[in-house]
Amino acid sequence: MNRLILSTLVVAGIVAAPAARAQSLSNPFQVGGAAGIAFPTSDLGNSVNTGFNVTVALGYSPPALPVGLRAEAGYNELGFQRGEGNINIAAFTGNAIFALPAAGFTPYVIGGAGLYRVGVSAPAVQVNGQSAFSITTSENDFGFNIGGGVKLPLSSSFETFVEARYNRVSAIGGSQSFIPVTVGIMW
């Protein structure tokens, strides 16, 4: 008897999940945000520690297609391993999302490109016991990102997601790459 009830619930969940997804896409426009951990990779990982990421997003997902669009503004900050200061990376990107078929949740692939503003901030430097200068510099460069995630609908107009993306930008004397792992909401 318990197996029959469990089987019925599983089948009902599988049947209801696409209906819930279709309802959540009745309005194809979404707004949301995310936050998480930013992991430095490659050369950037040799000079900075793990940092943080915050992002706001505007999305468009047409109901009949597995492809959507997301415009994002993100901020990443990674502190230097030696000494004070940080590297901060603001990103303004346009991204395409390709949803993969699944029941109850939606795995997806995401990638895009845009403007990355890479900045370096360091406090005043001491020279011969006297404060000499502080360093603050930034530059704008083109960069890209690619990754994947999983969306889980929580209601007809609200969903949560977890994703990880590789970001790469050529800036400040070389390429900077990092991987933010974020948790977010879209409604």
Q: Kindly estimate the percentage of residues that lie in beta strands according to DSSP.
A: over 45%
Instruction: Tell me how many strands there are.
Output: 8
Specify Rg, calculated over alpha carbons: 21 Å
Low-confidence region ranges: 4-25
Report the CATH architecture: Beta Barrel
Order of helices and strands: HEHEEEEEEE
Helix fraction bin: 10-25%
Terminal CA distance: 39 Å
Quick summary:
The chain is 14% helix and 65% strand.
Write up what this structure looks like.
This protein has 187 residues and is mostly beta strands. The chain has one domain (2-186): Porin. The protein has two helices and eight strands; from the N terminus they run αβαβββββββ. The protein has helices at residues 2-24, 42-45; strands spanning 29-41, 51-60, 67-79, 86-99, 106-127, 130-153, 159-171, 174-186. The protein has an eight-stranded antiparallel barrel. β5 and β6 (130-153) form a beta hairpin. The protein is elongated. The two termini are 39 Å apart. Residues 4-25 have low confidence and may be disordered.
Name some characteristics of this structure.
2 helices, single chain, eight-stranded antiparallel barrel, 14% helix, mainly beta, 187 residues, Porin
SSE layout and pairings?
Blueprint: H1 2-24, E1 29-41, H2 42-45, E2 51-60, E3 67-79, E4 86-99, E5 106-127, E6 130-153, E7 159-171, E8 174-186
